[in-house]
User: Fold these one by one.
Assistant:
Number 1:
Amino acid sequence: HAVDGIIIDLRNNGGGSLRDVVEMTGLFIEKGPIVQVKSRGRRPVVLDDEDAGVAWDGPLVVMVNSFSASASEIMAAALQDYRRAVIVGSKSTFGKGTVQRFFDLDRALPGHNDLKPLGQIKITMQKFYRINGGATQLRGVTPDINLPDQYQFIDVGEKEQDYPLPWSQIDPVEYEQDVYVVKHLDKIRKAAEQRLARDTVWQKILAHAHWVKEQQDHTMHPLSLEAWEAETKAEEAYLDAYDKLFDREVISTVRNLDEDLDHINSDEGRKARNDEWIKNVKKDVYIAETLRIMHDLIRYH
C-alpha cells in the first residue's frame, strides 16, 4: 500500500503483555532498549528490541488519553524518547507504571482442604522505567501536543488510587535511532494550537472541561424534590446539547483495506460492528485533528 503516515490509537488502552509491547515498539526502530523493569533491591533489567527489522520507517503519530495505561504507556514513552513519533492527546496518560502478579493461596497452603478455595492475591512486584530513566508511575506520559478532553482540569489516573507507589527515577540507558527522527516539533505544535484556538468545537470542549471541574467541586445540592428535578433537567439538557457537537462527520473518507473486506463481510455481526466503527471514526474530532498533525509532520520533515 502507498502509505504516507501511520497513526496508532492507544486511547482507552489499558495495556497488555510486556513482551508484546516490546515487540510492537520494535517494529518502528532498529535494535535498541524499549523499557527498564526494576524489582525491589535489584538492579534494573533492560528489555530490548533485538530484531533489526523495521516494519515502518515513515511518519508516525500516537494517540493517547487519560485512560491509556501500563503497556500502552511504555510504547508511547519509548517512541517519544527516541523522537520516533509525535504523541498527541490528553494532558497525561493514566500513570500505571507497575507490574502485578497473582499468587494462588491454595498452593501456598498445602493441606487444609477444609479451608479451600482461598482465592488469589495480587502483589505489585516491579516498576517500569522509561529508557530516559523516569518512571511512568503517577506521572504517565505527557504528550507532545495536548488535545484537551473533559478531564483537562481534574485529576484522574493511578495517582487518585489509594496508596499508590511514588514516582521515582533511575539512570537512563543509551538509546538512539535513525530510522525516522521527528523534526520541527515546535512548528507542528504551534500549528495545532492555532487550529484549536480558532475552532469553536475545541473551544466548547475546553468550556465543557471547566463545567466538569465545576460539577466535581459542586457538593451542595437542593433537598427539595422540585429544585433537585430542575437541576437534574438542566444538566441533562446541557449534556444533550454538548453530545450533539460530535454528531456530525468531520472526516470525509474512511475505508477498510481491500484485503480485509471479504473477512468483514462474511459475518453479519462483524459487518455491523465495522459499519458502526467507520461511522464513529468519521465523527471523531480527535482523529481529525491528528490527521492534520500528521500532514504537518510530513510537510515539515
Number 2:
Amino acid sequence: MRRRRKQARSRDVIVPPSLFFPGEAHTPDTELDELEYDEGEYDESDTKKRPSYFRDLQLHIAINRIVNEVIPKSRDWDGRETQQQRGRIARELEHILCACNSDLEVADYRLATLDYLMHDTPAVKKVENIFAQLTAMDLMGTHRLHERMIEQDISYYVEMFSHFMHFVDNHEPFGDDAPLALKKLDEYILNLRGAKTYQHMREITRKFTGIITVDLRILCHPHLTAKNIIAAAINNLKPGDDEQRGEFHDKIDLTWGYEDREGHNVFQKALHRAMWLKYDRDFANAKGQLLGAASLFEELGVYLALTRYFHKLEDNGFPVCKPELFPAETQHTFVQGMKHPFLYSSGGEVVDNDVSYDKERHIMVLTGPNNGGKSVYVKSAALTQLLAQSGFYVPATSAIVSMRDNIYTHFVSPDDITGGEGRFKNELRRLKTIFETATPQSLVILDEPCGGTTAEAGEKHTRDFLEVFGQIGCPVYLATHMTRVAETLEQNPLSGVYNTHMSFSRDNGSLQPLFKLVRGPSPSDYGSFTVIAMGMEKDVLSDRVRRRLGVSS
C-alpha cells in the first residue's frame, strides 16, 4: 500500500489582513490550516451566554435583519449550506456587538471602512464581486479545508481554485482615497498574485480548464477493478486542442466507457488518481492561500450587510450618520434625531428624540405611563451607544459619542418569574452585579428596576440606587412609571440627577402619547387619567357588573 506523502506546508502563504482590527493579521496566533470554523445555522435562542444587553435590546432581531441583506433566512432544508453561511456571518456580527468594543482606534478603523462604502457605489460593487467569489468557494467547502485534504475528483479543486483566481486576478484596487482596511485588502491581493504557490496553481488550473493531452500509465490487477489500481502516473500533461485528445480518443470514452461489474468507471478512476498523485502536493501548498481568502468571507459579509441595511433605513425615512467618537474620559454624548431602527417597518410616523449627558448631568430619570415610549427611548439610547462604539453608523441625524467600557442593562426578565425566585429578588441580584462591576466609564440602562415590590418600597430603593450611581459617576438612564420618584427629586435633588418624561396630549378625555422626550417630571398622575379614559373607575365598573348580573342597585 502506498503511503501518503506528508502534505508540505507552503513557505509563502500570504496572511490576509483583519478588516475589523487595525495592525493585526487575520490569524495572528493560529496556523491557517488549523483554524476552526463554526458550523450550523445561527442560534438566537441561547441568550444566557451573552451579555444582558443582548436580550434586553433584542439584538438577535437586529442581527437577523442585517444579515438578511446578504443571505436571506430560508425555511427550505435544501438551503442548508446557504444557511450555514448565513449563520457564520451572523455569529461574526454577534461577536462584535457582544464584545462591546471600547477601543477608539478599532472603532475608527471600522467606521472609516463603513463610511467609505456608504458613499462610494463603485467600491461596494468591488466588495460584492469579491464576496460573490468567496461565497462560491465557501459553498464548495473552502472553510473546511483545515480538515485533512482527501483524494477526490480533481475537478473539485480546479473549480475551487478557478473562483479563487477570479477573485485575485480580476480585482480592481479601491484606490488611494480608500480607508486603511481596504488598502490592506488591496495589498493582500497584490501579494497573492506574486506568490509562487499562487502562480504555480494558476498554471495547473489553466491546464485543467481546457482540452488537455494526457500520457497516462496505469498498473492494475488483471481483473481491472477500480479498487485494485496499484499505481497511476501522468507522464505528460499539456494544453491540447480538438486534434490532440490522446491515443484512446477513438477507442475509450474516459467519461462513460469501460465500467466494471460494480458500475465503476475504471479509466476515469485511474485518471483521477494519477492526477491526484501528481498534483496533491501542489494543492496542499495552495491550501493556505485558499484558507486565508476564506477567512475574509465573514468580515466582508458583515460590511456588505451593514451597508445595505443602513441604506434601507435611509430609504424608509430613517436618517443614519457616522458618529463622531471621543475617549470615555470626556464623558460627553449628544445625539440628535435618534430613532429606534426596529420601528422602520412598523408603519406610521416615527418620532425622533435627542440624547444628551455630560459630567454635570449624567443620570436621567424618565417617568410616564406605560406604552408612552419610555422603554423604546432607553433602548434606542443604548443601541445607539453600542453601534457607535462598535464602529458602525447610528440611526440619527448627528451623533457625538464618548466611548464606554461596558453597557449594563436591567429590564424585566422572564427569569423573574420562571427562575425559581421572586421578581424583586431577581431584580436586586442583577442590580448587585451592576454595582459591583460598573465604572465611571460605563453606561447603565434601567427599566422599572424596582417594580417587583410595593410602590412605597420601590420609590425608596430607587432613590437610594440613584444616589449610589451618582457616587460611581457613570451615565444612567432610569425609566419608571413611579411618578413619586420624580417628585421627590424635585423636592430634594441629587447631584447629577435630572428629570424627564414622555409627553402626552389630552384629546376628548383620552391620553394620546406623543413619544417626545420633555425635560422635567410628569405633570400629572397618568395612571389615574388612564383609568378614567378607559372607563375603569369604581362607580362605572360597579354599574356594569350589576347590569350584567341583573342585580338592582
Number 3:
Amino acid sequence: MTDYKEEQNNEVEALESIYPDEFQREYDKVFEGTRVTVETFMTWKAKFDAEMAALKSSTDISIDGKKRLTGKELFLADKTLNESDLSFLGEGDTAVAVDETLFENLDDLELDDDDEDDDPDYKP
C-alpha cells in the first residue's frame, strides 16, 4: 500500500515540476472563497435565522400539535408526579430480612493484606 502511495506522490511531484503555475492556481483556489460583505452577510443571516426559527418551532410542538411542556413545567403543573416515584418504592412485596449477627464480629475476619501489590511510591 505504501508503494502505491509513493507512486502517486511521485507522479504528482513530476506533474508539479512540469506545470508549476497550474498547481499554484489550484492551490490558491483552496484559500479563496466568497467574499463577505455587509450585504451578503445580512442575506445569509436572514436565511439562517429563518431556518433556525423553523427548526425551533418544529421541535417545540409535539405530534398532536400542542406545545410540549418541559420537565420542570410538568412537575409544577401536576403535583402527583412528585409522589409517583414514592409510590413505586412503597410497592415492595417482600421485606428483606437482614441477619445482623453477620456484622457483629468483623474484627475476627481475616483479610489478606497484599502490600506488595500496592504502589511503592505511595506515602500516606
Number 4:
Amino acid sequence: MAPPQELSTINSTSEPEPMLVLRNCPASACDIELKFQSLTDREFMIQVEAPNGEKSLMLHFPGAGCMRRFNPSKTGCGHGEWEIEVFAREEDGNYHKILTEELMADGTGSLFFTVGEDLQPVLESQVWAHLPKNASCRKYSFFSGDKRK
C-alpha cells in the first residue's frame, strides 16, 4: 500500500496556473490523535504542535478524570517531531509553562497519555501509531512507565 501523499502548490513563472506536486509522507497529521487524561487535582493546560505546524487550542484540565484530545485538521505531514507544552496554574491564578516535551512519531492512529502530580505526560497506550524506541526528549521521558528504557 502506498504511503499517504502530501499536496502542495508550486507557482512557476513559465506557467500561469499553479501546478500540483505530490510528496511522499509516511503519515498525514490528521491521521494521528493524541489523547490526555488528568490523574491529578492540580489545574493545568496542554498545547500540542504537530509536525505540519498546526497547534491545538489550549487543552484545559480542571481536575482529575478530565480527558482531552488533539487531532490536527490541516493538510500536512504528521511524520516527525511533535511538541507538547504543559502549563501549570500557579497561586497568582496565571498559567506558566513548566515543561516542553518533544517526541518523534509516525504512522497513523492514537497515542494515549496520562498526566499525574508531576504534570509530566506519560505514554500509557498506542494504537497503530509508531514511536521509535528513542522517542523521548532530551530532559524527560514519555516512557517513564514503559519497559523500553
